[in-house]
Each structure stands twice: as structure tokens, then as C-alpha cells.
Amino acid sequence: MENFVIDPAAGRLIQTAFITKDIHASMREMARTLGVGPWFLRERGVFPRQVYRGQPATTALAIAMGYAGDMQFEIIQQLDDSPSVYREVAERNGYGLHHFGVAAEDYEASVAHYARAGFTLVYEAEVVHGARVGYFDTHGALPAMIEAIEFRPATRAMFDGFRDAARGWDGRDPVRIRAPI
């Protein structure tokens, strides 16, 4: 590790994400045991553009995001049986840790950085506000994938709003429904 240098193109770590069979049970348990909340939940949606391992995809998801301090937690439940990066990990490792999310100020530079590191881009999608995300298989170098999140102003504002809601959260109104994807 003596030659280790942090490359700003990689992005800043902002999220730990999990896949689950039951998003509501996972939100309750993470709020109870870790103090994560409130949760902002999109109960069902299909991102407008998805590519999984080079093929168009139409995976339907429920997604919840919440904070504990400055750390964002994301929970994802796949709602269909389509081939996906989520099913792939669940079938290989079971439910649990799925990826680490990094805020990519320059999405293209972040994608190039992880490709140069030897990681494989296995999923890319256009998400809320038109931002792109790319998931990289780390081939066992890390215990989870890496997600490069295009950090647009609208993305930053959304995440800041979630974090602000968590500051001083008293446990009331633990799940806040968001508009569908």
C-alpha cells in the first residue's frame, strides 16, 4: 500500500447499499438498530434506460434511502424476476451488502478510473433527474461492487435533503414515500 494514492476522479464515498427480500422489514430493522432514518422510499419504478451486461434491461425496483449521521444507507428490493445486477449478487452471496456508492463529480472520469483499476462495468442506468449510475464488479478486491453516481446539482440537493431530515430525527414518520421513478 506504500504506492497508494487517492485519485479524485474515483469519486467520494457517500453510500453503503444493501439488497433485501423485504424492503419494509429492512427499513424497520435498520431504523431500530442503527438509527437510520427517516427513510425516503420509492415503492416501485423502472429506470428509463438500463443496460445489464451489455443488454437492455427493465428491472423493477423499490429503493429506500436514509441517513445515520453523514453516512447514507440505501436498500434495494428487486420486484421482478428479470436478470439484473441485484439478482446476480443475491444468487451468489445472498441478501445483504451490495455496493459502495461514490459521488462522481465527473462521471466519465470516474467510469474510466474504475475501468483502469481492472473493474468491470456490469450495469448502467439513467436514474432520477437524468443522472447516470454505473456499477462495477470489483472481482473480489472489495466485498461489494462500486457504484459511480453522477453527482449533478439535483442529485446533491436530493441527498442533502435526505441528510438534513435525519439531523435531529425523533423517530416519527419513519418512511416517507417519494414519487415513482
From TrEMBL:
Family annotation (InterPro entries): Glyas_Bleomycin-R_OHBP_Dase (IPR029068)
Gene3D superfamilies hit by this protein: 2,3-Dihydroxybiphenyl 1,2-Dioxygenase, domain 1
Keyword set includes Oxidoreductase: yes
SUPFAM superfamilies for the chain: Glyoxalase/Bleomycin resistance protein/Dihydroxybiphenyl dioxygenase
Superkingdom field: Bacteria
Keyword entries, A-Z: Dioxygenase, Oxidoreductase
GO molecular function, one term: dioxygenase activity
Name of the protein in its database record: Glyoxalase/Bleomycin resistance protein/Dioxygenase superfamily protein
